[in-house]
Amino acid sequence: MESQENPCWQYLELNQKAYPVLEVAIVGPSQRRPGTTRLVIPVDTGYDGFILLSEEEFQSLGFNLAELPRKYWPEAETVTGEVFKLRRASSIVQITEVEKTLEGHVETFQGNKENLLGLEFIQDLNLLLQGPKKQTCLF
Question: What's the distance, CA 28 to chain centroid?
């Protein structure tokens, strides 16, 4: 993150592409203090949910110990038409640079290796994606 009045984060470079990101502090059920796990996560408007965590991150934060009952797990569909259940747990997420706390569901699925911030996460945020500068800024 760069220090300025409105916090900005440099895009994440993966596989020769640049992705907008935000740094968040996720409070998992196994943590005693908020903000102890900070992650830089890509913003993906193709994901409708709040936060998608890799299966490994989901477990390391203890969300597997606090999952909602299966009847509350939503279904997801891939671009190829594969349908599967998303494991789900409630979470508190902080963007400490702007002292903003959000509540929502973190999700994962078997074999998932990606972390994503979805549409539900960004719906109440004022984000500016500065493509030429490769920066995500909060206002």
Answer: 13
